[in-house]
């Protein structure tokens, strides 16, 4: 490797460490530090991530966390990079948190990746607990997940199951092995898209599924900015911004083109675009 490249890497690491040290000592503490749960020792930048890499369960993070809880108790603090994370591994403590302090823990952590994909936590999955989230939940409960809606989509589910059985029967007749998992995933995808978009086959189905797969891969994968938020503040551009916009624009185009015809025309009590204020546009700020 060229000596200049090595020098640049070393200079960058030293600069980051210096900035971190400067930030941590340039502000006077106006309030006493909060009482935090115990946790394993940490390293700069990576926090407690090395405990997962050195564990015998490094391929199973939940087992590695369970091993740490045997040492530090049912309530412990882990720093995943620079992100403090409290781990609860006791049913009694979890019951106390969800019953006595449920309002304090009902909002989901919004990582930079989820923030960009959800356009600032505007959807029901990442929205904080507020009036907007309650309205979204009300719409889903009364108009999307009600018994009447489920019965309306019954024919679509039965058609997709029949198509799955027919495909399996046809391929098995030749004595060739088939990937049953792939067939079931395809059936579930077709059922969901058919209920959400309408019709037996939509020209936007492949695009819709491709964008959803991309979203799930980003949310479930490793993104450096999610773990070193303090050091990479303002560097949210490392996550492709168009991902969240593509899904949102696709949904709005389908609504504008087909109305709210998810399989069948909705009744007069169906939700309308005015039920909620429009979400703000995505930005890199």
UniProtKB/TrEMBL annotation:
UniProt entry tagged with the keyword Membrane: yes
Family matches, as Pfam families: p450 (PF00067)
Cofactor or coenzyme needed: heme
Compositionally biased residues, Pro residues: 274-285
Region of interest (Disordered), residue spans: 263-285
InterPro entries: Cyt_P450 (IPR001128), Cyt_P450_sf (IPR036396)
MF annotations from Gene Ontology: heme binding; iron ion binding; monooxygenase activity; oxidoreductase activity, acting on paired donors, with incorporation or reduction of molecular oxygen
Record bears the keyword Heme: yes
Membrane-crossing residue ranges in chain numbering: 6-22
Keywords for this protein: Heme, Iron, Membrane, Metal-binding, Monooxygenase, Oxidoreductase, Transmembrane, Transmembrane helix
Gene3D superfamilies registered for this protein in UniProt: Cytochrome P450 (1.10.630.10)
Annotated family: Belongs to the cytochrome P450 family.
Family matches, as PANTHER family: CYTOCHROME P450 71A9-LIKE ISOFORM X1, CYTOCHROME P450 FAMILY 71 PROTEIN
Protein name: Cytochrome P450
Originating organism: Eragrostis curvula
Lineage per the UniProt record: Eukaryota, Viridiplantae, Streptophyta, Embryophyta, Tracheophyta
